Every structure is written in C-alpha cells, then in structure tokens.
Amino acid sequence: MKTDSPLISVILPVYNAEKYVELAIFSILGQTYTNFELVIIDDGSTDDSKKIITRMANSDNRIRLISRPNKGLIKTLNEAIDVSRGDYIARMDADDICLPDRLENQITFLSEHPGNVVVGTLSTLIDSDGDEIGPFGKWVKHDEIDSAHLSGHGGAIIHPSVMIRTDALRCVGGYREEFKSAEDIDLWLRLAELGKVTNIDKRLILYRQHMDSIGHRHRSEQVTNTRKAILDAYKRRRLQPDEGAQLFSSSSDVSDSELDTMLKWGWWALGAKNIKTAKKYAFKSLFMAPLTFQSWKLLVCSYRGY
Question: What is the model's pLDDT at position 219?
C-alpha cells in the first residue's frame, strides 16, 4: 500500500438526504482516527444534497465526491467499493451519526483480530428529530451473529456500523443485485464463510429510524429476498433449512402500519427510560387513532415513567 493512501475508506451513498447528510458527514470528519478518505456518491439526488456535500468537500480534502444519475443503492455501493483505496472499508449512511471514536475502535479491533473480516458495533436508536429511542443490538460473537442471520433475525449486524477488510469484500464480489433490500444480510452470510463476523460491545453509532427507511418502504421485498439469501447460504454450506425458523413464520410477512411503528418506538423509548420520546409517540399514536387502547396505555405509562 502506498504511504500516501488512506488506511480506511468510508463509503457513504447519498440520495435525497438533505435533512441529515451534513450531520452524518460531520460525524465522520470529527473522528479521533484521521487516516481515512470519505467516498461519497451522490446517486442522482434531486434535493440540495449535492450542494451541501460539495460545500463540505471544498473545505476538507478527505472527501471524494462522485455525482451522477440515479442507479440505485446496490450499484452505488459497489461503485464506491471499486474506487476505494483503503485496506478497510467502513460503511456509513446519510441519516446516521457516528460517535467520535467509532473508527478508532474498529481499526484497533481488526488489527488485533486478523481472523475477523467484519466488525460492526452496537447502536442507539434515534428518530427523525434526533430524539433517543433506546439501545439496539445485543449479539457480539461470530457464532451467535451467524446463527441469528441463518434464522432470519435482522439487526444482528447494523449495516452502517460495519468496517470490512477490503480484500475480503472484493473477494466475495461485493453486494448482489438479486438480493435488493436484503443485500446486507446476504453479504454477511457470504463473508462469514471467509472469516469471523463480530460486533464491538460498544454503542458507537446513532442509528436513525424513520418511515422512509428501506425496512419500512420495501418490507415485502426485504422479507422475500432475505429468505432467498438464507436459502442460498444453506445451499452453499450444504445445510438443511430450518422451516421452523422465524424467517419462515407468516408473521414475518406483515408490515408494521405507521400506527404500529409509533407505538413500538414509544414502548422502546419507555423501556429505555427516554420518557420525553415515549410521550411524543404516545401523542402521535393518539392523534392517528384516538380510540386505540394501546395509545392511551402508552400515554398513561409514559407519564408514570414505566
């Protein structure tokens, strides 16, 4: 590797993210570890995302901006991988926020654990306003993460939290188009066949939840392609699929309504003692469905604090 090359390439796909992208970029530029490049591909945004990124790129030469017509997330990610110069690739999304020591923790971990090809982190969920919902993520070790993926559990590895060895990522061919909306779990399953996939037991990213996320907008496609990715992994590993796993439960096919999501975030916030956030979602759910028992229950419990 050339001495003037960055050790880490942070790849950040952007599409119509003007509301959040400046905070996301600032959280990378403010890292305690500084030997990185920030590869941003603006995927044909029609809002002011490109203008914001261009302004920031003009003031920090670690930012490499590529802007071109829309091609979709998977093509954008693979393009970013192709142009990355670092020995390690760190993912980031335009609506999330990194804690300052995220990259330092991850590069140290991978340097000390040569058998690991991927390391993610645990997270704290925030909402569209930046209000804290609660902690997210519980699995740390390779075996429990890989088993969770094979059983259809999402969130065992948080996509925008990961750092990956570049040679391993290129070895498996990057992201695959046929697993759209589930391209991350497909990648973790393939990388787990090369080395260990683990999480640092620290919450190093603020992981934003909002109704425009892929998990909400493309839930049916996500479930279908997650099934396909897992069945493909079973085939590669010569294993028998577990038809009783959560993945194959009919409940996996049911998308949460907006009301269900408001209630879920409210209860999560209450469980984490984020009372202000819990009250906010109690009132939101009451506004949407004033006669719903669960909305009133959430409101009463949030005022009681439990």
Answer: 80
